[in-house]
Amino acid sequence: MTDFDYAPALESRSIVTIESEYGHFINGEFVKGANHFPTINPSNEEVLSQISLGGAQDIDRAVASARVAFESTWSKMPGKERGKYLYRIARIMQERSREFAVLESLDNGKPIRESRDIDIPLACAHFFYHAGWADKLEFAGVGSSPRPLGVAGQIIPWNFPLLMLAWKIAPALAAGNTVVLKPAETTSLTALLFAQVCQQAELPAGVVNIVTGDGRTGSALVDHPGIDKIAFTGSTQVGKAIARAIAPTKKKATLELGGKAANIVFDDAPVDECVEGIVNGIFFNQGHVCCAGSRLIVQESIAEEIVSQLKVRMSKIRVGDSLDKNTDLGAINSAEQLSKITALTKSGEDEGAMRWSPECALPKKGFWFAPTVFTGVTQAHRIAQEEIFGPVLSVLTFRTPQEAIEKANNTPYGLSAGVWSEKGSRIHWASQQLKAGVIWANTFNKFDPTSPFGGYKESGWGREGGSHGLTAYLKSAEEGGNNE
Ligand code: NDP
What we know:
Structural class: alpha/beta
Radius of gyration: 22 Å
Largest sheet: 7 strands, mixed
Bound molecules: NADPH dihydro-nicotinamide-adenine-dinucleotide phosphate
Low-confidence stretches: none
Number of helices: 15
């Protein structure tokens, strides 16, 4: 059979304007920053811009501005009026969606197909959904007169930069809180574009503040005494450090941490759909997904068939430039993440698992990793236990349904899982046994703002999305009146 090559189909980057240097967004204005560091395009290592490293003083100014906005404007404004701002933000983001998608793919390395069709539409959907809640908070489940918490400190990772911003900012604002957000060091650009959207929407000054920087900036935000709530998404290690830091304080927290999801395939599962779901589960967003289906737990009787079909499908994955509309698998976000993936996959080989990747020519510049599957994986292997956060699948097998559940739950994490079977009763049974916050049946990696997302065990505290996520930004009248 002849394979046809795809001609490159590059999305133009002329729609985005990237400044040579950025400051912070505080009190409705861009302010000068200091100690700049470069943000690069991981597809080719081109320096895109210089980002400011926020220090304790910047955090202090941002928190002070958020406090004034909370007390003087935002918490006093009727929900209906707050809702109008959120609708306006959502509509402007929609209008500028191509700009956001191109910028996200440039700064993060993810394929334009995903930023254009998944990240940005979902980010807009979060603002639309929460706009609808703003004047209906009495139905959220915290009593008839719910109150906002105050100023929320929000820290987000690099894997879904704008989407994680939307998960954090939309519910906080709908509930009447003001925010100080710190984007990840390697992916600040769409957060800074979002700051422009806030200006365009004429959002009152100080309601949204964005301070860029690294872990030290995040830590200064966590430690600031003027913060009422921390919302964090990132590694379990940093999540634990945050939990320790806020333990002696009155700060509330939601922590959305790591995962090592099991994708369980029973012998009656439809093979073609299932293979597609496995690919989507682990290779979506280069596997930089906390809820990625990184452990395939497949019934022994069909394991060979599934793995051989999977290899055929993996051979069709196109790896390349994030702005090429044909690209399925983009660049790894940073040199640091690439070396982590490289080290963990080496441990897989050293510990005796069998490694396979399709032949694919990786670009010379930039950070790249071919889609990879390991078979012969045992539960003791590091690649079965640790979050790789890359395009790497570990395959384990089982004989009885009970064994599948035991293997699936044998992890310190508990964020998500998938079950593939034609029998509804089997899916219900398995879902009830699995210790995971989100369980997909005959699909994987589906997200919706109305649906709560979050984990068990070391995968975090609390939920984001839906009314559950909203209540994490509210307290009942009995809990403290109007934030005294
Ligand atoms: P981190 O948890 O370090 O980063 C997440 C966010 O927290 C970033 O904005 C980061 O800043 C900030 N941060 C770092 N240290 C602190 C601190 N002490 N106090 C407050 N904020 C802090 O994740 P990494 O980006 O370093 O990724 C490491 C690993 O974490 C990955 O390999 C992956 O396994 C996992 N991870 C999981 C994610 C998830 O969604 N569950 C998301 C991202 C990573 P900055 O990075 O800008 O320095």
